[in-house]
Amino acid sequence: MPHMPVAERRSRLLTAAFDVIARTGVSGATTRAIVDEAGMKLASFHYAFESREDLLAELVDVVVGGQEVVLELPSDPTADLETLLARGLVSYFDQVRADPLRERAMFELTQYAMRTPGMAGFAERQYARYRELAAASLREAAERTGCDWRDPVDELAADLVALTDGITLAWLADRDDRRALATIAFAARALAAEADRGGAVSPVQPSTSADIHPTPAEHHRAPSREAAR
Amino acid sequence: MPHMPVAERRSRLLTAAFDVIARTGVSGATTRAIVDEAGMKLASFHYAFESREDLLAELVDVVVGGQEVVLELPSDPTADLETLLARGLVSYFDQVRADPLRERAMFELTQYAMRTPGMAGFAERQYARYRELAAASLREAAERTGCDWRDPVDELAADLVALTDGITLAWLADRDDRRALATIAFAARALAAEADRGGAVSPVQPSTSADIHPTPAEHHRAPSREAAR
DNA sequence: AACTGACTGGGTCAATCGACCCAGTTGCGT
DNA sequence: ACGCAACTGGGTCGATTGACCCAGTCAGTT
User: Fold this and answer.
1) How far apart are CA B93 and CA B70, in angstroms?
2) Are B147 and B197 in contact (CB under 8 A)?
3) How far is A144 from chain B (nearest CA, A)?
4) Which of A47, A224, B20, B41 could form a disulfide with B29 if both were Cys (CB 3.0 to 4.6 A apart)?
5) Residues B82, B207 contacting (CB under 8 angstroms)
6) Which residues on adjacent β-strands are paired with residue A139?
């Protein structure tokens, strides 16, 4: 309603568009729905953006570049590599659970970019970014536990991205927390098996998934944290 | 144009709708675009289907139920478990490469089902079906090589589905054949590590991924076979 | 406090959407 | 060959869409 600089207005419209896309998909993100979500009038839209396509292109750009957190590794000096990876994956999964609509919007935007002629490269860049972040996490995990990856981290990063994608997609479809956590345990086991322990660390032994469940018997429960605005 | 039974007409409209969705997404699959693709007139649409939603619901139903091939295991009595899984995954990947639009349409329909109120269960059923097929493949692979899965196959099936989903999604985004095959090698290694060799089979040893690449150094090349029509 | 350019609000436009209608035509069962 | 139900074709409808316009209003500068 009140006056505000263009940059601010553009930014607000972008987050509003993202929220609308999360709820109703890209096709539901009409100019009217977006300005409604942002609490503006329709004319403000074409003042801030050339067109709807223009906004969507910028949104994809911002979203790809702003992608930050993949694995948040706990600072536990006693944990071995597999446990560390499992904890990191669980923390990622908690993020997904806390805001499922965000993940849906991400997939939606990726598919939109893939099928829009001028934006073919965006989806590719997005996955390159994912791998980048995954590689950083893998490097740090190995360093902390004194392990060495047998193959280049970039290769392994692609494996990690594939696993998180698969876990996320399946969970979005069936919302089965238990199964997702079981797959996370498998993923940690599989990734840890790709490393040699470099120093004097005790050998990695196959573990059950029980020790990585933060809240063991809490299936199908909505997360406490609300979606960030 | 000519007369034909309702069932035939419905069927043709369904496949036409699937093709349109593959090309332009669910939102692009308007009633006019669908009948155009099928070579019919607009009135035929509402003669065969109650509404556009009705067609989409039936399409999701058919697509979920008609899902068949996941892993096609080669009949090689000398292959060990990991090699068998790797070959199966490569054959799946070849299918994806042969008809990428089909996979895109599948993801598109899954997302549509997830965000459409009345069709929440369809996405869940789809993934249950995926796991079912994956479990069958895993069971057969273990049986052929005389191995035993340490955990229930249903658990492992979820892992396999996550991996194939992740591999497919990443490849659709960047079309990097080499990376996809490397991830497939990782997947086969990781899955095979979940089995105990039951009989007198030689122990599974870590292998490089070189032996499963059908065309080792062919990056970013479009597949030779064209999408099936 | 006056001025002026940045910004808003409400309205309009052609295009496209799903849905529907109905007079005409086709081809099957008999 | 004939009757009639199954089916087609062309047109229409209200709703929604992206885009645009312009007179009015606000805020920062002087």
Assistant:
1) 9
2) yes
3) 23
4) B20
5) yes
6) none
Nearest nucleotide to B40, CA against C1' atoms: D8
Query: Which residues of chain A neighbour B163 with C-beta distances below 8 Å?
Result: 162-163, 166
Span B83-104, pLDDT tens digits: 999 999 999 999 999 999 999 9
Q: φ and ψ at A35, to 5 degrees?
A: -65, -30
Q: What is the DSSP string of B22-86?
A: HHH-TTT--HHHHHHHHT--HHHHHHH-S-HHHHHHHHHHHHHHH---S------TT--HHHHHH
- Does B4 contact strand D, using a CB cutoff of 7 Å? yes
Q: What is the pLDDT of residue A67?
A: 78
Q: How far does the CA of residue A72 sit from the closest CA of chain B (Å)?
A: 20
* CA distances from residue A194 to A81, A133, A151, A156, B178 in whole angstroms, order as listed: 10, 18, 8, 8, 19
Query: Cβ distance B198 to B104 under 8 Å?
Result: no
Packing angle, helices B153-174 and A120-145, rounded to 10 = 130
Placement of tokens 């590599």 in the chain: A81
Q: What was the pLDDT predicted at B219?
A: 43
B226 residue type, one letter: E
Whole-number distance in Å between B9 CA and C29 C1': 22
Q: Do B173 and A104 touch (CB under 8 A)?
A: no
